[in-house]
Amino acid sequence: MLKIAFRQEFVHSVKEGHRFPMLKYELIPLQLKHEGLADESSFFSPELASFETCCLVHDPVYVKQLFELTLDSKMVRRIGFPLSQSLVDRERYILDGTIRSAKYALEYGVAFTIAGGTHHAGYDFGEGFCLMNDQATAAGYLLKYKYASRILIIDLDVHQGNGTAHIFEGHNQVFTFSMHGEKNYPFVKQRSHLDIGLADHITDMEYLTLLEESLVDVFREFEPDFVFYQAGVDILETDKLGKLNLSSSTCHRRDELVFKMCHKHNIPVQVSMGGGYSPEIKDIVNAHCQTFRIAIDIYNL
């Protein structure tokens, strides 16, 4: 069964005039239903994550300041959004959606959230339009309640998952793997368990070879029992911020490699959408929907 987290709050920032391109979160469900890949029963509506849940991998002092809207101006600038109650609530919905989709993945093999991939939020900071880290929080939840004991976070967004790396640096139950543009944001990187910094304009063949070899090595050496996949589509040649200029077919093959590896080893995988900044919204939506199509085909959903 296909299970996807979605709430209308995921797209609230479009209506408030923020610069981050939230429109895709409204269009992806419509496109999935239009193509017959999903219906209303595929979607579930997350609730507000509790304070305790938000503190699973985040500093309680930082979370308290978020909840009370008392972050200092320097941190608000670092995040990049004007701080508001609706924005904090949106982030809490995303965290709950990723936790619940992770639990659905345990049942069905794979599950999604339309939003998420907020990988720039670290233990005690927000950054890059990310207030709290959804996949890191869900990993903390799975560990706390013993749904998993060895978690692999695969981050293939063009930007390093610096917040995820910050949270799990030195952690022996969570392995962070980030493959990203070396010269792209964030310009000060954190240390993942495995970082692969890519040169601008890397060729499609080089990218796929590096990815496949890395996935084989990590799965063999770490032996995860759960995977989180950050499936940003800002690696595309159409993306205005990505600088990798990779083809749509390479993005397709990238997703296929991840899902086939998880499926082969019978490891559940939760998928968050991550970034995408192509000037044409159709390029972003089509690339994200392609990720759904591949998973649906591999898992026979």
Which labels suit this protein?
Arginase, Chain A; 8-stranded parallel sheet; 8 strands; hydrolase; HDAC_classIV; HDACs; hydrolase activity; histone deacetylase activity
What does this structure look like?
This protein is an alpha/beta fold and 301 residues long. The protein has one domain: Histone deacetylase domain (Arginase, Chain A, 3-Layer(aba) Sandwich). Helix content is 44%, strand content 12%. It has helices at residues 12-15, 24-34, 51-54, 60-67, 73-79, 85-108, 134-144, 162-168, 204-222, 248-264, 281-299, and strands spanning 4-5, 43-44, 110-113, 151-155, 174-181, 194-198, 226-230, 269-272. Strands 2-1-3-8-7-4-5-6 form an 8-stranded parallel sheet, sandwiched between helices. Strand 4, helix 8 (162-168) and strand 5 (174-181) form a beta-alpha-beta unit. Helix 2 packs across helix 11 (281-299), helix 6 crosses helix 7 and helix 9 (204-222) runs parallel beside helix 10 (248-264). The longest helix has 24 residues, at 85-108. The radius of gyration is 17 Å and the shape is globular. Residues 14-20 have low confidence and may be disordered. GO terms for molecular function: histone deacetylase activity; hydrolase activity. Residues 23-288 form the Histone deacetylase domain. This is Histone deacetylase. InterPro entries: HDAC_classIV, HDACs, His_deacetylse_dom, His_deacetylse_dom_sf, Ureohydrolase_dom_sf.
